[in-house]
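Summary of Year 1 activities. Much of the first year was spent building the evaluation harness for sequence design. The harness presents a backbone, in tokenized form, and records the residue chosen at every position. We chose the following record to illustrate the format because it has been used consistently in internal testing since the harness was completed.
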């Protein structure tokens, strides 16, 4: 195993494994752990309270905490939920005597690593390259100027305070997204300076910053991360990346089961997905087969995070934004604020389409990400 070795060891040595949760993340964790290279036996799923009719999932029993306490007291409980539920669930498990727990929550580095091993194995079996940033940079003996790799940290005046100390990422360049929509200023670089689409931030999310980077940055490498999500890098790695042959850095893929389109339709509006495919067919017909391959597959690159040679980032943006504009015109505004961010959600999948299409032409490597979370009481 390459990622999360101690976690994998703990999973393999567990007498019994129970997944806490029954939603998508729990199903995907179970799917991953039961697949190669793990092939672990899962005894079932556990929830706080059983919903009507939910006695079985993926062919495995679903139990409540009381039943779990009676029959699976010594099991390793793998908590597979969204971060915002973690505190409440951990407390409930303690009340019922469960202290042998493992957090494979959506944003956790452990879950990222566990699924990273899954993709590394499965892609190798398919004859595809799965390259990691660390391994590739170990081959680079020279050092360049880390300032040649300019990674922008997207932040907004509405961001919640983060729990972690982000000063460790002092090489990131803060950029305020959605600046045109507020009088508040929180950084020296604003996405409404120069050529921009800052006023579209409610729908485009961090992409208004990406647009600004495309039109206004002239670095050797340029990239984008978030105020809570960061590439796990340091100045040493950046100095090597600056003189490397790497074309693009993406995060460890997100696992979707049974497939990307089904999961998108579960979380968002499937009609928007159909429009996205229509846009690709209308504007970039040569990418249609790749888009269809992506939607039938089980991964995508999340968060709209990337680092790439600037000419590649420029090419990607020149490809991406016309597709998004097509979707915007046909899908319109949404009443629900969360679903109103659909342009950002579609862009994550389009990021994957673009780099999947070029996987044999570009040297693409995978980097770990870290998650800062927010201060207690601020929500996640």
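For this record, the design step produced the sequence shown next.
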């Amino acid at each position: 195993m390459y990622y999360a070795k101690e976690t994998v060891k703990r999973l393999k040595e567990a007498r019994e494994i129970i997944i806490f949760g029954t939603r998508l993340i729990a199903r995907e964790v179970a799917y991953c752990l039961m697949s190669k290279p793990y092939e672990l036996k899962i005894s079932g799923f556990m929830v706080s309270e059983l919903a009507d009719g939910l006695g079985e999932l993926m062919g495995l029993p679903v139990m409540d905490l009381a039943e779990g306490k009676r029959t699976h007291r010594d099991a390793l409980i793998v908590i597979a939920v969204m971060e915002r539920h973690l505190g409440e669930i951990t407390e409930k498990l303690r009340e019922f005597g469960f202290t042998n727990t493992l957090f494979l929550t959506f944003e956790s580095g452990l879950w990222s690593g566990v699924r990273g091993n899954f993709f590394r194995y499965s892609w190798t079996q398919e004859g595809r390259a799965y390259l990691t940033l660390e391994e590739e940079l170990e081959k680079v003996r020279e050092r360049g100027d880390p300032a040649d790799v300019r990674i922008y940290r997207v932040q907004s005046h509405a961001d919640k305070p983060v729990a972690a100390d982000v000063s460790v990422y002092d090489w990131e360049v803060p950029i305020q997204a959605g600046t045109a929509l507020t009088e508040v200023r929180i950084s020296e670089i604003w996405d409404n300076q120069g050529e921009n689409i800052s006023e579209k931030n409610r729908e485009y999310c961090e992409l208004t910053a990406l647009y600004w980077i495309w039109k206004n940055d002239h670095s050797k490498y340029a990239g984008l991360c978030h105020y809570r999500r960061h590439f796990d890098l340091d100045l040493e790695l950046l100095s090597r990346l600056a003189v490397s042959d790497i074309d693009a850095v993406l995060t460890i893929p997100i696992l979707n089961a049974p497939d990307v389109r089904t999961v998108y339709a579960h979380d968002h509006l499937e009609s928007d997905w159909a429009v996205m495919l229509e846009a690709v067919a209308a504007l970039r017909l040569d990418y249609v087969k790749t888009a269809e391959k992506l939607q039938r597959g089980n991964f995508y690159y999340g968060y709209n995070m990337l680092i790439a040679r600037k000419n590649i980032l420029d090419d990607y943006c020149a490809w991406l934004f016309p597709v998004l504009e097509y979707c915007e015109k046909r899908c319109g505004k949404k009443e629900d604020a969360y679903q109103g961010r659909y342009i950002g959600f579609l862009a994550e999948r389009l990021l994957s389409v673009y780099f999947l299409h070029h996987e044999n032409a570009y040297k693409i490597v995978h980097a770990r990400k870290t998650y800062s979370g927010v201060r207690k009481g601020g929500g996640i």
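The domain at 5-114 is CATH 3.40.50.720 (Rossmann fold). Quantitative recovery figures across the full test set are reported in Table 2.
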